[in-house]
Amino acid sequence: MSSAAEQETCAGEGRPAPVVNGAARPAPAWPGAPTPLGARFRAGPDGVAGTNFALWAGGAEAVELCLFDDAGGERRVRLTELTHEIWHGFVPGVLPGQRYGYRVHGRWDPWTGGRWNPAKLLLDPYARAVDGEFSLPPEVYGHVRDWPQQQVADTVRDDRDSAPFVPKGVVVHDDDDWADDRRPKTPWADSVIYELHVKGFTRLHPGVPGELRGTYAGLAHPAALEHLTGLGVTAVELLPVHQFAHEDHLLRRGLRNHWGYNSIGYFAPHAAYAASGTRGQQVGEFKRMVRALHAAGIEVILDVVYNHTAEAGELGPTLSLKGIDNRGYYRLQADARRYADYTGCGNTLHVVQPHVLRLITDSLRYWVTEMGVDGFRFDLAAALARSMHDVDMLSPFLAVIAQDPVLRRVKLIAEPWDVGSGGYQVGAFPPLWTEWNDRYRDAVRDFWRHALPDVREMGYRLSGSSDLYAWGGRRPYASVNFVTAHDGFTLRDLVSYERKHNEANGEGNRDGSNDNRSWNCGAEGETDDEGIRALRRRQLRNLLTTLLLSTGVPMLVAGDEMGRTQGGNNNAYCQDNEIGWLDWQLLAEPGWKALFDLTARLIALRHRHPVLRRRAFFSGRAHSADGLRDLAWFTARGTEMTEGDWYAPAATLGMYLSGRDIPGRDERGAPIVDDSFLAVLHAGERPVDFVLPGPPWAKRYEVVVDTSAEEQAAPPPAAHRAGTTITVPERSVLLLKVTG
After folding, report:
1. Pairing relationship of beta strands 677-682 and 652-657 according to DSSP bridges
2. Where is the Glycosyl hydrolase family 13 catalytic domain (predicted)?
3. Closest alpha carbon to 138 in 123, 127, 153, 125
4. pLDDT tens digits for 226-277?
5. Is there a domain that residue 292 lies in?
6. Are residues 659 and 523 in the same domain?
7. 442 included as an active-site residue
8. Does residue 415 have an active-site annotation?
């Protein structure tokens, strides 16, 4: 390590820091161009093939491009051209497959936020492929990680070379125009989203060849596609596929980041999910996966993490942005040594900065235009919507998205919160955006464990959450309804555990939420009691049926439709093993196969009936002389609910959906007309007598779905006259179609 005085002298005189590990003398570069950013293979002057490199590094004093051969040998090229804070140069003879990184020189001054250290090889933020995996030995930290006085460790520069220990960017040739691709372009109201993990979904799939399991090619395999098309979902929402790194605390415990919410490369498909290679082949493999999903009628939505990076806080590694321009890329506190952390992950990207906003929007457009994806789910989106401090729905990020001709046309889903003050923003995002609706999740969980004080909340959630979204031209499909997500219990665990069981994570069971709103049906965890097991399967049918009958966009989690369990782990982010992978053998068990069949049948029912996927909110008013309304609510007595009924404790709720009063017209301008339905949801522990409403609502009904039955009969097994009393079994849903 050099002394602080020596470091300041070098930086103060404008000279680069000493040569690291005796690297070869820099080779010359032609001027090249400052745009586009990143590494772009092209023909240069006189048709000479080569690659243009461009890096924004606002406060840097010098930038070296580092080219690596297959043996790890390094050749350095000084980028001498500087245009609008972008360092650039064209290097002839650099072809696709070339591995590279940057060394950026500047002042080491953590007290003012400057953390330049040319001993650290940095990943290009615009790298389109990454070769190698991140490990975190001491050499990859810009400071001396193991300094005895940890309270000042981040201020002591580490001059050891990190190049042998970090992945490299890869030059990729983009030559795909997507002319043969046909995007499904499924309307929001018709969408059914299926959240899955590329590796976890295919790792144990018996129909996918062994060499393709856990990869993009595995997800594109006909055996994987068959499950998705058989289920009937219209979109897959992929857990993060941007290049990510594993956290130090996990590696020390022999674990890995499985979910991938630790991004470090916003343009590169995560290399470990590629079967074909990591020298650019992962890009083509990802594109072929997208094409295969599109051909099956399935859209691709990416879960993206632009709120923070894998570099963590001041004690984290130096992998990319921290060493390029720490002050320019990250939000810092008044004490510039420290990071503003609205994410709980150590740092927050400074999205108000134009070059950071450009990085994010360039990345988004790249994945749409060149990688073929159809939309994005933004992790901790409230952090992106912050201006200087507060969440601002007129923030630069949201304004840019709203006017961008590419991005405003794709599906945009916000996780509408972060961990900072004022970060909970459910219902607040502007038109164009949909949101994960956690109030839907909580209400449905509480209803089916019979924990709601009344049914007001349930009424709003079943009918599209108009209290949250009926403003500014938003529609019911602004609500992405879910009961489970990757974060938390699986659906089976939700009815099997009342407490989290995260011991395998190595954090003393302290991690993960304690607010699960779960009910174990009488025993904690797996049991041989067949009565409890049957009740759990019924509760699963109730939860799935409620989700798929609700107005809004339903989101399922991969495996919930066939009884997947994580053994009570509600935070399996580091379980890259059987806990985090789907067990496809479940489909061989009759009980779980029946659950899959019911889920597929409910999705097909939703696709057939526009009354279940409305494009406008219910009015609750009569539109004809007979008094029939588009939505009505009934008590078990068969009477319409009064204001007092909404405020009273209740375990039974009847919801009438009129197919006669659907707003809007079809593609030919004709009115949209559908069947009408009555859904009866009963969470009580004993059967209840329910009086079927008579005219004008109906004259006759037939049962379409009865969740008290393990096997769902088809055609419908029962029909009833209006005005008669039927018995609704304990803890069940009846869906009845009006037949007269």
Report:
1. antiparallel
2. 195-606
3. 153
4. 999 999 999 999 999 999 999 999 999 999 999 999 999 999 999 999 999 9
5. yes
6. no
7. no
8. yes
